[in-house]
Amino acid sequence: MQDFDYIIIGGGCAGLSLAYSLEVNHKLRGKSLAIIEPREKYERDKSWSFWKTFEHGFDDCAKKSWTQFEIKTEKGTKSHSSSRYPYQCIDSGLFYEKILNTLKKNTNISFFKHKKDIGKNSSIIFNSVSDKQENNGKLWQHFQGYEIEVERDIFDDKILTLMDFNCDQKDSVHFFYLLPFSPKTALIETTWISRMDDARELNYSDQIHDYIKDVLKIGEYKINYSEIGKIPMFNTKNIKGDNIIQIGTAGGMTRLSTGYTFTNIQKQSSYIQKNIQSMNKLNNFSIRKKYQHLDNIFLSVLSNNSSKMIEVFYRMFGCKTDTIIKFLSEESTFSEDLAVIRSMPKKIFLSALVGK
Ligand SMILES: Cc1cc2nc3c(=O)[nH]c(=O)nc-3n(C[C@H](O)[C@H](O)[C@H](O)COP(=O)(O)OP(=O)(O)OC[C@H]3O[C@@H](n4cnc5c(N)ncnc54)[C@H](O)[C@@H]3O)c2cc1C
Fold first, then answer.
1. Greatest Cα-to-Cα distance within the chain, rounded to the nearest angstrom
2. What is the pLDDT of residue 170?
3. How far does CA 132 lie from the centroid of its chain?
4. 285 ligand 1 Cβ < 6 A
5. Which pLDDT score, from 0 to 100, does residue 134 have?
6. 123, 4 contact by CB (below 8 A)
7. Which CATH number, 3.30.1450, 2.60.40, 3.10.110, 3.30.70, labels domain 140-232?
8. Which portions of the chain are predicted below pLDDT 70?
9. Which of 142, 205, 234, 238 has a Cα-to-Cα distance from 192 of 20 to 30 A?
10. How far is CA 18 from the centre of its chain?
11. Ligand 1 centroid to 268 CA: how many Å?
12. Which atom number of ligand 1 is nearest to the Cα of residue 261?
């Protein structure tokens, strides 16, 4: 059985991002890499969106970028505009294609379907697969989205709706997310933050259809694409061992309060490729402690006060545009952190802090 210098378990976003970063930065010269990925074929399965706060190298996989976004609540709409940090949506199909086309040119990179197909003696292993997660009362962000097409120009494709809270909350947090790709096409997602302890996820489809009909007032439309997912709002448990480095969601790259992961995966890949010679002796890349701490407080508030969360988001999005973006993208300064913290309702955040 063949042994490899490096093994990547899981050829999804993190596994492929790391392999690509190693390859284009010439870190695989004279080295062998095995990628273990069970899927039969790669096709678009996710739309990775985020505020672009740094060069990540995947602009050519973007479906669209926006400089304006808004959040909508019963109280009103908060609109924002930033040309410095556009909100970008990466098409995972284009991303997989770009990376695989590059990796296939290097004959030192091999693809396998199962771990049992390769030797693992003295390899450095990068693992992006979490142990199976039970729901057991933890918070998840769970959602389904349809990309729809209509015949007339209906969508304002200059502005995306980050959160529209004008929908049934069912004692948890629920909003619609709308990415208008063109005047005739948009991705519309029903998104919940809950413990997944009832059947909200069973009727995502009805929720989207009702929103399209009742809120967007669209009668006829065609569904061109669908995506479904759940993102843990807690740190996952993973296999441990010497020479095993966790990456991606399994490696703590998900910002627990928001689910944003794509940009952290790119930062982690860059960190690993720069330090590949000494990775088994170094600490892994992690989300900065201040954000981990603030997210824990935020999640504690969310767990105990789901009915107040619309107010929390509404206040937070009352901050300056670049302050919010930098805070949510882990690029904020101390004074920007303070501005976000000050915008929060004091009483519930103080009791969450004292309760810690
Ligand atoms: C539908 C969806 C939309 C998302 N949208 C956003 C977004 O807009 N912005 C954002 O920042 N984040 C988003 N996320 C969160 C996050 O960016 C993605 O989940 C991202 O794909 C995480 O990358 P990953 O490599 O950790 O996991 P994955 O991309 O899921 O990769 C894991 C890979 O491991 C493979 N695998 C599974 N079992 C095994 C096994 N036993 N052995 C080997 N391989 C295995 C899987 O087939 C998969 O290819 C989204 C998540 C989902 C599910």
1. 64
2. 85
3. 19
4. no
5. 66
6. yes
7. 3.30.70
8. 133-135, 199-201, 239-240, 355-356
9. 238
10. 16
11. 15
12. 11
